[in-house]
Specification:
By secondary structure, the chain is mainly α. It has helices spanning about 5-25, 40-55, 60-70, 85-90, 95-115, 120-135, 150-165, 170-180, 190-200, 205-230, 245-255, 265-275, 275-280, 285-305, 320-325, 330-340.
């Protein structure tokens, strides 16, 4: 897409992107606010909820009681996670679920090189698989298995790759998103986008299936809300809302905080988190418009709507976002070609 830019727009984009990279080294870091006081973490919360279920409590009783015990909000109902992941952990154990999470990461790393559109070289496709694996490595960490956002990111990544891969049947992405929706409602943004593409391409059967998924999800969310309401007490805490609006800085810090980039200094880490944008824009719009719109939608949501402590929403973009890092040389070449064109 960058290769098709008129020369003035290519120059403006290059200047803006260079300024953004320089800003990564100059901007002060925004401190991440903890969701709960002390050293108690969300991972401990979810594991202790499951432990209470192992002792015979129902999920909703255990979740609301444990959140109340550690000063977590229980209002509105979305502050209590959907029960699927914790029912599975109660049934099969966190260790088996961790193995499944690793399998999902490996499936992403294997599928993305095949699914990526355009005439890419073998080296580029190999680099894409490696970048996806490294970008999603934190998602498969055993310590983070109870975090629903890691599962969402891996399933959204698989669904996006399957949508791009022409050999995949249309129902496979739908199955991945259906699974993601049982874990976290944030995966729903994929549904209207996929339905819009199905409608534009005249795929009526697929359009109906996405519509039915939306209906079933709305019904499930309604019953979840009712179940939570039955265990909420008048004195329970309410969430302060989701409107921090940290912008580009919030997005980049979310990506840094959910990848191996957190091991680097702040400036280089944020710059490396921004670079995949240049790679993703190297795709032709017609071939890559679905993935570009999908990434843009989730990136915009992370930039505008989370609380200051919701940096873990960065997992929603992973490991897909990391694939763009392998395309940075192609993007730089296209941009240089557009600038040099008479």
């Amino acid at each position: 897409m960058l290769a098709r830019l008129p020369r003035p727009f290519a120059v403006l984009f290059a200047l803006a992107f260079a300024a953004a990279l320089a800003w990564c080294f100059a901007t002060p870091s925004q401190a991440i606010v903890k969701a709960a006081p002390g050293n108690y973490t969300d991972m401990q919360l979810y594991r202790e909820i499951t432990a209470r279920m192992d002792k015979g409590e129902s999920y909703y009783a255990a979740a609301t009681a444990q959140q109340r015990l550690h000063d977590y909000p229980t209002k509105p109902f979305v502050t209590v996670r959907l029960p699927t992941l914790y029912w599975l952990a109660h049934t099969f154990g966190w260790l088996r679920l961790g193995t499944l999470e690793i399998a999902l990461l490996l499936a992403n790393a294997a599928l993305w090189p095949l699914a990526m559109p355009g005439p890419l070289t073998r080296a580029e496709r190999g680099a894409i698989g490696f970048a996806v694996f490294l970008g999603g490595l934190a998602c498969a960490s055993p310590a983070l298995t109870p975090m629903s956002e890691t599962w969402c990111g891996l399933l959204i990544g698989l669904a996006t790759a399957l949508t791009l891969w022409r050999k995949a049947p249309w129902w496979l992405p739908l199955a991945c998103i259906a699974a993601a929706l049982t874990v976290r409602e944030l995966a729903f943004a994929f549904v209207p986008l996929a339905a819009a593409f199905a409608w534009a391409d005249g795929r009526r059967r697929e359009l109906v299936a996405w519509g039915m998924l939306a209906v079933f999800f709305a019904a499930g969310l309604f019953f979840h809300a009712q179940a939570v309401a039955g265990h909420v007490l008048p004195g329970d805490l309410s969430s302060p809302g989701w409107s921090s609006g940290l912008g580009l800085r919030g997005l980049l810090q979310a990506l840094v905080g959910t990848t191996l980039l957190q091991q680097l200094a702040r400036g280089p880490a944020m710059a490396l988190a921004l670079l995949p944008l240049l790679g993703w824009l190297a795709l032709e719009w017609r071939a890559g418009r679905f993935v570009l719109l999908c990434l843009a939608g989730y990136a915009l949501a992370i930039a505008l709507f989370p609380r200051p402590d919701n940096f873990y929403w960065g997992f929603l973009l992973l490991p897909t976002w990391a694939a763009g890092l392998a395309l940075v040389p192609r993007g730089a070449w296209q941009l240089g070609r557009a600038i040099s064109r008479r």
